[in-house]
UniProtKB/TrEMBL annotation:
This is Periplasmic protein. InterPro entries: Transl_elong_EF1B/ribsomal_bS6 (IPR014717). The lineage of its organism: Bacteria, Pseudomonadati, Campylobacterota, Epsilonproteobacteria, Campylobacterales. It comes from the Bacteria.
Amino acid sequence: SQENKNFIHYNYVSLSLNGNFKDLLNFIQNLENLPIALKIDKIKLYNTQGLKLKLDLMFKFVNL
């Protein structure tokens, strides 16, 4: 039997983080600079109280 060599196996990650804007921005920038094929499916940033923010993030990546 032949294997389908075009099949891509994605790894999915869903995160919910609390923090300040600078820390969350640094996290997102570091994520974008990872040496993996990455696609962010959902990103949602909203204020919880005061200067604290909540980040909901879902992304998928493939191992190269």
